[in-house]
Amino acid sequence: MAAAYGQSDLVQAGDVTTVAVTFSATPTAGNHIVTFVGWWAGGGGAFSSVADNRSNTYTQIGSVVSNGNARVHGAYAENILTGSPHTVTWTFTAGSYPVGVVAESTGVATTGSLGASNSGNGNSTSGSSGAASPSTAGIYYAFITGTDETSGTFGMTPTWSGSTQDEEAEAQATSSPANLLHKVSSGSETATWTLSPGGNWCAKIAAFIEAGGAPAGHPAMRRHGLISPVGFSRPTELGREGGRIF
Predict the structure, then answer these.
(1) Which residues pair with 47 in a beta bridge?
(2) Which site in 168, 213, 231, 242 is 20 to 30 Å from 154, CA atoms measured?
(3) Is-contact 117 207, C-beta < 8 A?
């Protein structure tokens, strides 16, 4: 079953220790949720927890990424329990001006779904998530946030070929900026952005394998049309949903 994007939502907040976002539409039981949250650490705030009101278990994606006062955390929940409303909440140890996103996917493996992840950080006018290289096809999500402590603005323009922008938040005086992208693909992928005017940024990418996924070259991959009979990979678009294509 091919993995596909379902929906996403975003929330920005000010100097708070908890922030929550409710899905616009009730997710479907058995689907997959990924979350990312970025925050400003200048006030000493550190990530504490992520949870939802449907008793799902969230698994951290790598470690917290940091650069200057910018921070990013990622987590995911498999084979979800759901109901209406479905709200995800992040908690911090001190006020952190957070920005959080949630995304629901269909067709993702119900166990062992994280195929690969990576992260990047810097202080520049370009951002990169680093490469994620899962062994099977699936859906990739990439998230970036940052702080520009000189002008108070921070534009983030995606340059990841073939990706769709799901959510974006401009920098405000009371919250951090953010950008969420996704792409259905196979093989190595690196998300990239152009940043204006630039500043401290942190990014994460995570690839979640499709249900019934098989290692590259496996006969099942040929049945899905992801690898040609003679062994050469050919690009196949498994899904393209709302938003802008880059």
Answers:
(1) 92
(2) 242
(3) yes
Element (H, E) at 219: helix 219-223
Helix, strand, coil percent content, the chain, rounded in steps of 5 = 0, 55, 45
The residue count for the chain = 246
Note the Cα 169 to chain centre separation in Å: 14
Q: Does 80 fall in a domain?
A: yes
Rounded mean pLDDT, 117-124: 96
Query: CA-CA distance, 95 to 206, in Å (whole number)?
Result: 27
Rg from Cα positions in the chain: 17
Give the pTM: 0.86
Pairing of strands 189-209, 114-132: antiparallel
Token pair belonging to 47: 């990530």
- Which residue has 């950008």 as its token pair? 179
CA distances from 104 to 23, 169, 188, 233 (A): 9, 19, 22, 28
What is the C-alpha separation between 19 and 3, in angstroms, rounded? 29
pLDDT for res 42: 87
The reply to whether 166 falls in a domain is yes
Number of domains the chain contains: 1
Instruction: List CB contacts of 134: < 8 A, sequence separation 6 or more.
Output: 115, 116, 186, 207, 209
pLDDT digits (tens, 9 = 90+) for 171-228: 776 678 899 999 999 999 999 999 988 889 999 999 999 999 754 444 343 333 433 3
